[in-house]
Amino acid sequence: MNGVPVLCRGGNWGWDELLRRMQNGRMEAVIELHRDMNFTMIRNWLGSSNREEFYARCDENGLLVWNDFWNAWFLDPPDHALYLEHVRDTVRRYRSHPCIVVWCGANEGTPSGEIDEGGRRAVAEEHPDVLYISNSASGIVSGSGPYAWIDPRQYFSAATYAHGTFGFHTEIGIPTVPVVESMRNLVGDEEGWPISTVWNHHDWATRGGQHPQSYKAAIDERLGESGSLEEFCAKAQFVNFESMRAMFEAWNAHLWSDASGLLLWMSNPAWHSTVWQTYDYDLDVNGAYYGARAGCEPYHVQADPRTWEVLAVNHTRDPLRGAVVEGDVLDLTGRPLAGRKRAVIDLAASATAPAFTLERPPAAPPLHLVRLRLLGPGGRTLSENTYWRYGEPQDLLALNRLSGARLHLTGGRTSERDGRLQITVNLRNSGDVIAPMVRMSLRDHRSGDRVLPATYSGNFLWLLPGERRDITITCPRGQRRRGDLEVTAQGYRTALVSTRARA
User: Fold this and answer.
1) Which among 88, 148, 388, 447 counts the fewest CB atoms within 10 Å?
2) Within 13 Å, how many C-alpha atoms sit on residue 464's CB side?
3) pTM recorded for the entire structure
4) Is residue 200 helix, strand or coil?
């Protein structure tokens, strides 16, 4: 890192299921998804993974590892000597991996004196210059959520957190309902809608810390109650994206002024789940994934949802001079509601810089768009960020009355490199209103099944009338041939015109 501090953005692993995934050859995909979200750290919660493949892939992909020992919630192992022997042996076994930067004594508790001192001594003697901390949620770090849905604006207030500080925060998350195909796999042969006991078997625990009833209420308040599983999953992505982006943007806003790192609980789902994940058990991506990826961009432009002060963020080790920040306020037809704001700024390495405040125009409708851009040398777009700005949650109901967006997919150029297929398509909205939250999906053209895992240069997009985007999608080649694939696009309440492109 050449001495430059780096905001750690990452997630926690889920349980021993990770081992099965590695044995099935999915570790490459799991690590790639974390890297694609711009995460810089993975917390190996309670040492759940003890596989060489995990550490090797993190080394290769530049992902830091926070490695827990197997102690939690003030539980004391009965045989201290045997436990500490295991600690020392584990440190020796993995110390050759440069990815490991933290050894942690216990999850949400401090080990007993002998265990704590023994662990600290083992790290100091066997892995010097690597940090040992006693407790994952106190001391020089903090934790304790929140784990349930809250108004996204609350993430920007230090009062939201148990310690009243941002700091290096090790656990935060929300319920996360994935895309409908994954939910159908979750419910299996049972009815998926309305919500029933099968959801409870997959973490929809109304008496737990995730409190999914407030998450569902937020979705219903914004976009109305749903009549089907497909409808609910589509609406959930608005809340997933908005909330996850806000978590990371809150840390960006306080970068190095109290805020230094944020880890999700969780990034990796242990099985089909309705909560705490950035992608699903099938390895498909959803709104939470892209909200996280947006908030964690190396170069990023964002707004404080309380004041609409616009901020540029540089997470790289190189300064950015003469950058341009632009801000537009648009109605649902893409019509400007005010003149474009523009500022030229210098961004120091690993720092932020204010640009301007993007006020709500007096004649603006209750729901409208705020689109921000950060431009680098030569006018190249480094970051684009679209907010759906509303006064009250019910203002989003205007999207249910929206009609006139028309999606076209063309192209389908395919290339192959290093065992991966790369498909590029062009997505266009030929309609006269915006196309909200357009979901791209790579599929087998014969069966229509999703091709998983796959990574997308852009997804869950807001397209203005007439706007075009070139989207690049990659997937492992496996047994696939060119011509086996197609790309589909579906926006919220959009007309389907030409929404398939063969690749």
Assistant:
1) 447
2) 15
3) 0.95
4) helix
Query: Residue 456 is inside which H or E element, if any?
Result: strand 455-456
- Tell me the C-alpha distance between 65 and 102, whole Å: 7
What is d(CA 131, CA 127) in angstroms, rounded to the nearest whole number? 9
Residue 312, amino acid: A
The residues near 212 (Cβ < 8 Å, ≥ 6 apart) are 148, 175, 204, 205, 206, 274, 275
Going from the C-alpha of 283 to that of each of 32, 167, 188, 353, 421, the distances in angstroms are: 11, 31, 17, 36, 17
What is the rounded CA–CA span in Å between residue 66 and residue 397?
42
Helices (H), 46-158: 52-61, 80-94, 113-126
Place of tokens 């990815």: 99
pLDDT band at residue 480, thresholds of 50, 70 and 90? Answer: confident
Q: Which two tokens stand for residue 158?
A: 């230090």
- Mapped onto helix, strand or coil, the DSSP state of residue 242 is helix
Q: What is the pLDDT of residues 65-87, one digit of tens each?
A: 999 999 999 888 999 999 999 99
Identify any residues that bridge with 300 across adjacent strands, giving them in sequence order: 313
Neighbours of 354 (CB within 10 A): 12
Residue 187 backbone zone (phi > 0: left; psi -120 to 50: alpha; other: beta): alpha
DSSP state of 379: G
Count the Cβ atoms, other than its own, within 10 Å of residue 331: 17
Q: What angle do CA 137, 292, 15 make, to 5 degrees?
A: 50
One-character DSSP codes across 34-59? HHHTT--EEEEGGG----HHHHHHHH
Burial class (CB in 10 A: 0-12, 13-18, 19+), 164: exposed
Task: From 193, 247, 228, select the one nearest 37 (Cα to Cα).
Answer: 247
